[in-house]
Structure formats: C-alpha cells, structure tokens
Give the backbone structure.
Amino acid sequence: MIRKEMIAMLLAGGQGSRLGVLTSKVAKPAVSFGGKYRIIDFPLSNCINSGVDTVGVLTQYQPLRLNTHIGIGIPWDLDRNIGGVTVLPPYEKSENSEWYTGTANAIYQNIDYMESYHPEYVLILSGDHIYKMDYEVMLEFHQQNGSECTIAVMPVPMEEARRFGIMITDGTGRIVDFEEKPTQPRSNLASMGIYIFNWSTLKDALIAMASQPNLDFGKHVIPYCHQNGASMYAYEFNGYWKDVGTLYSYWEANMELINLVPEFNLYEEYWKIYTKSEILPPQYVAPGGRIERSIVGEGSEIYGEVINSVIGCGVTIGKGSVIRDSIVMNHTTIGDGCELYRAIVAENTVIEENAKLGIGSETPNDTAPQIYDHGLVTVGEKSLIPAGVTVGKNTVIAGTTVLQDYPDGCLESGKTLIKAGERQ
C-alpha cells in the first residue's frame, strides 16, 4: 500500500480577473514572472525544496498553458512512479457533474485522489503567490503542537488587516478566534492561504460541509474545525511573500527583483526556483545596445536600451528603442525607435517601429479604473501595435490594432482599446 506522510494540493484554477487582459486567455498561475518563470513555479519549487514529492494541481480556468508548462513535472523533479505531480481538472461523475465552485469544493471533489496516498497530513497551497517557504519547518511546528489544522500567517500593517482573514491567537500561537475581512480587526496576523491539516480532520470537515454552496476554506472549513474543537495553530512566517493579484502588485514584484539588494533573491544556490525552459540560444547584446539593472531572458536580442526592466525569453528590442521600468514577456518583438515607460507587455506581441507607450499625464481608465492604474500601460498577448502611435498612461490594448484605432495617431491616457482579433 502506498503511504505518503504529507501530500500537497495546489489550487491553480483561478482566473485572476484583477490582472485584466493578462489573464483573458491564460490562468493566473501560468502568467510569466521574472523573465523566465511562471507564477506557479514558486509553490512547486517550494514543494520539492521542502521534500514534498506528491502534488495535485487543481486546474479549471484556461488550463492549456498551465498543463503544457507542468507536463509530467520533469523540471521540478516531480516525474515520479509513485507520487509526483498530477493535474486535476474538474471531471464528469455518474451522479452529477460540476465545476469547482470554491477553494474547498475543489479539494472535496478530489478526496479519492488524496485517499489513494493514505497521507497523515495534507498541505493546501495557492498557485498565485511569490514566496520561498520550507513547508517541512511548518510541518514540524504542526507536529510539535499536536495541531490538527495549522494556518500560515503573516503580520500585516493594522490598517491593511481588514483585507484578510485574521487569526487571533493566545501566547502559544494557538488560534482562539478568527475573523474573515473584519471591519475592526483585533489582530494583524493575516492568513496566507497555506494550511496543513491532519488528513482525518480535513476529510471530516469536507464531507460535513460538502453541501455548502461555493465551499471555501475561510468561510466554511476553518469555522467548522474551530466550532468542533479541533486544535488549531498559527504558524508565523516572516519572509518575503507577495500576492501578485493586481497589475500594480505584479509590476512591483517584478521590479523588486532588480533592486540592488533584492528582497526576493532568485539566485540563491540552496533554494533554487525550477521552471520548464525552452531550448534557446544565449541572449545577444548588439553594438550600441545597452542593459542597465535589468533581467534579460535567454534568446533575447537587444539592439536598443533596457533600463530597470524585466525582459522575457526570445524578445527582440530594436535599434534606438528605450525600454524603462517595464515588463516585456516572452517572444515579443519591439521595433526600432520605440519608447516604453511603465509598460506590461504580454507574450507574442508585436510593437512596430517608433511607437511610444506610457507618454503624458495620468487620467483614470475609462472602463476599469480599479485594474488599470498607477500610470501603467498594459498590452494583452498576441497584440499588434502599429508604427508611430503614441499611447498614454492607465491604458489597456489587446488584439490586432490598426492606425485607424488611434485618433490622430494617439490613444490618450485612461483609454481602453480591446479588439476581437489577435495576431496569428
């Protein structure tokens, strides 16, 4: 009989709608990050670095790129005969068929998968956070305290606490109460959405709460465990952790990688971040090309200037172009004489010569001011921006655009230009 001490269940089905056009065709965990990675690489790498070799990845929204990226788990050493990585999409059952309707519902629908490993412990993870964490240390904490449910928490500023699930603990770390997004928080220990459960405790809670609509950990499973007297502890984490849930936090987390002393270091020998890499030639910097304080992926050709930016793999930046404070994702081509300031350009995009992005003063976006803000320009994948146009701040462009889409050759600050077609 197969037995695993601890298996991980990685929730990767979310759309990530606050990332706007970046997630219109791809699940949030599959979005590029840091030049050569995808967001899901971080929790997957944490698993293998922590000795967790059995991971179920729960997918749902736009899973194609995620499935292709994970494959059979080779980059993370998760191609195992027993265990390894398994992609778990929703599936048709004889009595009923349903999509995953909440975080805990997705786990509930995969009880058979978990049961097949007879685990003592189940680690629940989210696929859309950037951090390094040794889950083995958290498991030791769980065992030492005789906990049945351990929740990883992080101290946050008190004024931000109302955005999170907040844990109230006694002097030993035992959870005595918790509040979901409280208006008057009594503590600043925010749940990170990382849980270790005793399998028997989790299974009991999932089965008991199965009929709840949109079954969720914060709203249903955790309260159920608490009400039924389960021993619950908060495991305090003080390292770098970032929820890249908004365009600005996504941009900011990428920019933090290139700080002189980065808070989040991609270059640590003992805690590598693994990813599926394409077979590409080395990067090339042409005479007259210049790179300053930037990350540039392999296979990229730099003929212009790249300053304080994160450039993906297989990107071409033309002569006389200046890319500053921007993220340019894989296989994008930027023509000669372009200027990009605070731009996020998704994969396989073409920006033709002399286009200028991020010019002028700020105006709130006209369709989604809560998404497209902080002066950023966001370009969806497989888009085309024609030669010679000027694009303002807090703007969004997606699809194959033509010169006629830009009045007087300009897309003013705060404007949205989303077209149905995409560049093939």
In short: The CA atoms of residues 285 and 302 lie 5 Å apart. The chain is about 15% helix and 25% strand.
